[in-house]
Amino acid sequence: METNVSDKVKTWLGVASIPIMVWTAIPLLWILATSLKSTAALADSTQNILGNFWPKHMTLDNYRLIFTGGASDLFVPALWHSIVVCLVSTVISVILATFCAYAIARLDFPGKGVILTTALAVSFFPVIAMVTPLFNLWRQIGLFDTLPGLIIPYLALTLPLSIWTLSAFFQQIPWEMEQAAQVDGATSWQAFRKVIAPLAAPGVFTTAIIAFFTAWNDFVFSSNLTSENARTVPAALAYFTGASQFEQPTGAICAAAVIVTIPVVILVLLFQRRIVSGLTSGAVKG
Amino acid sequence: MTTDSAATGTTRTKARLSDRARGERALGWRLAGPAFVIMLLVTLYPIAYAVYLSLFNYRLTDPAGRKFVFLRNYLTALTDPLFWQTFTTTFIIVVVTLVFELVLGMAIAMVMNKVVWPRKTLRTIVLIPYSIITVVSGFAWLFAAQVSTGFFNHWLHVFTFGAWNLEYDWFGGRWSSLTIICLSEIWKTTPFMSLLLLAGLAQVDSSMEEAAKVDGATWWQRFYKVILPNMKAALMVAVLFRTLDAVRIYDNPYIMTGGANKTMTLSMLVANETINRVEIGMGSALAVILFIIVLIIAFIFVRGFKVDLTGGTRGR
């Protein structure tokens, strides 16, 4: 494919990719820049360069504020809630979805299509439509503002997605290799461990990352089904207050944003190729 | 796999074959069943419960006053100007973001498809907005546009050689607020769109494009007559995914305006009715209406445009 691209076109495509990268990067740099500004610099454009963009004097005050300062009782618990709720719901959905997707990819049974179609239909649910009934139900049975009360609705986000993505991954696995290994004298456990597990692991892993992102990103459930004891980071950010009542918590929000963004961005950078194939496998005929 | 070989093997008896098939069926459902049941429990059950609740006049602060009113909540909602205002706002956001995302996403996908250098860097960087929490991107654009903290006004001031007002309040009016909301949505979701479109582009046979080129087709003719028709399936899926996603928009306007200046979306109206006003009956009715809107859109796409969503995994 590359052979028919002339040098001139190559150069132009290279040039065209620069504005794309700049457009993508500016809001990211902006969050970072704001998190490094002092309270005074936030409201005073003379203390910043590049048209109020980057601070002249960088400070880590905002990071101190969210980890040890006044905002820490809000941010640190929220961070833990986010990690626990997202990990638990991801693990549950990926385990359930692995069995389900294995059955769909390998076994012949009626209802396969129904499962896949339902998974897809359910992932288009307007999640807000589930908030009202859950809000009412959770209040009655005491699940409102608890971690399980958040894990259950998060399964609604992660499970359909996991079933769909994993089925797509598993259908690309050459399962005949398991039998081939057994013919060559491997026990079934050996065949599974040495042949199938290494082939299936990337798909399971990628699905877990995508499911985790989806849960990590949620704001609708977290902001409406919790108040204090189970609030996750996205909702906590929305309820941040400044050091004093009259001060905008801009810097603290940006510092918290940087903290919760960095691990996710690192994951994306490390597993870029697999995540792309995971995201598009279910969506595009192939 | 096993049934295939069993079915074609003529030496096997019928009884053994059906035994085996039956065993496979049972195992299939035993493996897939738990996931399927839990999926239905956590999604369909709340929706069914919402349909039930929507038939009542029910305030959480007054549980004793719960009264069956049949479809009156729906009638009230559909005749309420606030509902139609949120409906209009939501659809303005959907249409504007979709158009820009399609054009930008297509352009980015075409660059990514052919670019030689910086191929890997570009593909990585483009994926980053996808991984940013929507609330975080909402805040980033909010702070960037705000008069006191932002840089938008400063940059526009420079680019227009001082004509732009440094004190311009983006969140002072409906249209300027919606502009920022849409910009932030476009920034956040175009990468996803371009990845879906890139996957579609990769399936277009480049020899067809070559042939058209040899026959003297212009760049635009090749794009319009060869590339687009051949990636129609991927294009429609991308549009459907994004439309259904955009209809549910909640996080972004919630963070930026909180619904002020007529920027409230349908999802925000549902949450507002439920959480702030604890009108469970009315909130449920609105939730069901939103659900029906999503169903109608999906139906139009799947039937009207013949989008085959399960083709990717079924057709092997």
Automatic annotation (TrEMBL), chain A:
InterPro entries from the UniProt entry: BP-dep_ABC_trans_perm (IPR050901), MetI-like (IPR000515), MetI-like_sf (IPR035906)
Keywords for the protein's UniProt record, in alphabetical order: Cell membrane, Membrane, Transmembrane, Transmembrane helix, Transport
Transmembrane helix recorded as keyword: yes
GO CC terms, sorted: plasma membrane
BP terms from Gene Ontology: transmembrane transport
ABC transmembrane type-1 domain residues: 79-271
Annotated membrane topology: Multi-pass membrane protein
Keyword Metal-binding: no
Subcellular localization(s) per the UniProt record: Cell membrane
Entries under CDD domains matching the protein: TM_PBP2
TM region(s), chain numbering: 12-33, 78-102, 114-138, 150-170, 195-216, 250-271
One Pfam family here: BPD_transp_1
Domain of life: Bacteria
UniProt similarity note: Belongs to the binding-protein-dependent transport system permease family.
The protein's name: Carbohydrate ABC transporter membrane protein
Organism: Nostocoides japonicum T1-X7
Automatic annotation (TrEMBL), chain B:
Species whose genome carries this gene: Nostocoides japonicum T1-X7
Superkingdom of source: Bacteria
Cellular component annotations (GO), alphabetically ordered: plasma membrane
Principal place of residence: membrane
PROSITE patterns assigned: ABC_TM1 (PS50928)
Family: Belongs to the binding-protein-dependent transport system permease family.
UniProt keyword terms in alphabetical order: Cell membrane, Membrane, Transmembrane, Transmembrane helix, Transport
Family annotation (InterPro entries): MetI-like, MetI-like_sf
Name recorded for this polypeptide: Carbohydrate ABC transporter membrane protein
UniProt signal peptide: none
Annotated membrane topology: Multi-pass membrane protein
